[in-house]
């Protein structure tokens, strides 16, 4: 790109001064510099979103900027890490001022909410491809790993699930009486940062629900070398999702729909008594491998490919 | 992408166990985890390479993987940071086993050379777009910033410059008697990690030469609020570049050609006596703004847009 274009882009993303004291040097040098306080580990995650793959061509740029960051922060939340910094690699087909203004507003508004700094990035020309790397802090030995589930742990999810999936169906034409909540959940998912911080002292394994609770829970089971049973009747569903299931018969939606970015975690029964966040127990970790779902008196088995068994 | 494709890709990039003790958890969870030793800062940089923009369609995938990592490590080198970890966001139009095998070999061979771990990443489908984030360690207060040049500092470069630029010209059809060195410099630039570590105690400002020594030095001048004079006759040139200039008359090549990834740094005359690396003084930092180039008795001025003045 020409220098003038770069200047334009930098203008939209300028965030000064640095908000978070761990960040010692931001955009404008060969590297950013960060200082990690003693007793903490750095958590690092990266996610890419590609036009026509992860979002529709012509998607609202404000929501896109917001969601791109939210998806990455959600990975930090699931480890119990507090976000502190982010880098953005922006590949753009063209420099569209209006688009950039909205995209950066959506991105930076979420960054502002969590007081995190945009410390670096790269801007290149090409097919619209957005890569974020998010950096967070977690006290040593408190990070919630996928491999930490133990037999007897209770399985919980935060919030309600299936709403973002219903939002997608509404965008694709499904008529809902109350589309606002599902659409908001689809367009502007909130990373469960506060929840991750609240449970990291007492929970064992944790994952964020990006691919559907069934598939994501399977990742925990695989890494922890355990199995699980979940009770469909216990899944926390919004009124809208309940109505959708009643209308369409598509009861699998809350199990297989992704993009909710709620947390799914496992915790010992003793520690579960100390839970202070809004969450719902949906099952239990068992020694017997695989994921079993109790649904209307039947037990449904999922194979290694998660929800593919359903379709 | 389908799960089987992801498995394939992961197979090529598996690096086990973690080599560097600061990396506590690598690929396979929501985040990687890293522990920064006391007294150190973390240096973070990210660069994207796009097909048809940063490399030719059909470029050799081994060299591509190698260069993608080298370009990022070069940014760490210019801060005086020691690389410890890297993440890779890979957007691929299709899953081509042969291509992936070569690309990953080129990438991992350089990672292996510096004992750094691939701790995370994302794989998506789309136009070929490659983003790396590299993480390094530098003792507190030793990072060489662009803003640290002082009036009276001597300006040095490592190695020779213009070779990668000549390599590009050879790829584009220029006939050279000895094309090996320029082509190697273009295809497989080596990040100047050892040089960065060797000078961080004594140098002030430093930058890696990615856009040509004139344009890159200008970044130092701008951030440090100073000017500089360089003496063209002192530029360290290889025999091949000298022959090229003699043959073509294109004397500007070593000033404006990028991709060399040598370091350009400033250092006080006292400290310069302690330099232990192979490097060449090319000029001096002055209070008078802008970059002046002495060439055959004339003084050539560069404006803020660096080499654009030349063309």
Structure description:
- The structure is a homodimer of 311-residue chains.
- Chain A is of the alpha+beta class.
- Chain A folds into two domains: 3-139, 2-Layer Sandwich (60s Ribosomal Protein L30, Chain: A); 146-309, PurM-like C-terminal domain (Phosphoribosyl-aminoimidazole Synthetase, Chain A, domain 2).
- Chain A has ten helices and 13 strands.
- Chain A has helices at residues 3-13, 61-79, 97-113, 163-171, 180-187, 193-199, 213-224, 239-248, 253-256, 269-272, and strands at 23-25, 32-34, 40-50, 82-92, 117-125, 129-139, 154-158, 203-208, 227-231, 263-267, 279-286, 290-295, 298-302.
- In chain A, the strands form three sheets. Chain A has a seven-stranded mixed β-sheet with strand order 8-10-7-11-9-12-13, with helices on both faces. Chain A has a four-stranded mixed β-sheet with strand order 3-6-4-5. A two-stranded antiparallel ribbon of chain A has the order 1-2.
- In chain A, strand 1 (23-25) and strand 2 (32-34) form a beta hairpin.
- Chain A is globular.
- The termini of chain A are far apart.
- In chain A, 51% of the residues are buried.
- At the A-B interface, strand 2, strand 3, helix 2, strand 4 and strand 5 of A face strand 2, strand 3, helix 2, strand 4 and strand 5 of B.
In short:
The structure is a homodimer of 311-residue chains. Chain A is α+β, with helices and mostly antiparallel strands and 311 residues long.
